[in-house]
Specification:
mainly alpha
């Protein structure tokens, strides 16, 4: 890896892109990010941008998984006005609905 310029904030000090990369040339030594990064001492930032390392060492839960309780569902459903639902269903018989029609529900 070429040494990056100190003025270039888009690269780590050993020249890895901060935009992220799949893996480096030492992928066999770290077993595609399962083991410790070989750059851990010389350039600790590298492991933060290696997709293989991040995938195997990311311990925070995904933001995509949301757990909703039964009481939250009941509370949401209790706020829905039956009249609005009837208007939307009536409209759906006459024309195609779009996603904004459903925002009227809540």
């Amino acid at each position: 890896m070429l040494k990056a310029s100190k003025n270039n904030a888009n690269f780590t000090k050993t020249g890895f892109s901060k935009a992220g990369f799949a893996c480096c040339g030492h992928w066999q030594e770290c077993q595609m990010g399962k083991l410790e990064c070989i750059y851990a001492e010389s350039d600790p930032e590298v492991k933060n941008y290696c997709k293989c390392y991040v995938r195997n060492h990311n311990s925070k839960p995904s933001d995509k998984n949301v757990i909703v309780t039964d009481s939250e569902i009941d509370e949401f459903l209790s706020k829905i006005d039956d009249k609005v639902i009837d208007e939307i269903l009536q409209k759906s018989e006459n024309e195609q609905l779009d996603i904004f029609d459903f925002f009227q529900i809540v």
